[in-house]
Amino acid sequence: MHRTPLDKGETRFVLQTLRDQIGQRVWPVHRLDKGTSGVLVFARQPEVARTVGQAFESGEGLKKTYRAMVRGWPGDEGLIDHPLRRMPDDLRSAREEVQAALTRFVTVSRGEFPLAQGEFPSTRFALVQLQAFTGRRHQLRRHMKHMAHPIIGDATHGKGPLNRAIAEHLGFQRLWLHALRLEIRHPVTGAPLVIAAPPGPEWDLWHAC
Question: Which of 33, 76, 81, 204 is catalytic?
Fold first, then answer.
């Protein structure tokens, strides 16, 4: 998103890129984990950014939908109600140590990679739709790990050897998490506002497996 002590080696920043593209200042309303693609919202006035940011904090009138490819075969659908402890490097120190966190998942499809895993001749994976009701740091990644279905390509909460094997098999390496759709009320008019970002063409790779 922007310069941060959490990733001192990074040289590319969405905030600066967008400012350069449109020739004016913008203010971030929310954030995506590095490696996550999809909908990302900025405001052109700081007061609007504060208003929308408050909606993200409270979750009121807000619906965030993500797509992810995960290891294994989760159930058809479910609600993950699992509190998350604030991460040690979280700079927002005013927050409580443990926060409620709620995610709904729906399994869209299931498949298998021809990659041996332990005693199994193949590796199961699933495409899931995720809805985050709260906005905790790494919430979706941590919740899927909690379910024993980590998001593929997640270097922090997944398994490195498996991630590398799948990346080599697909010929494409990334965190397989995409912010698909955001529904929110317009901060000025109050009208329903829907912002969608279709997944990139790399999401079609797994269909050939």
Answer: 33
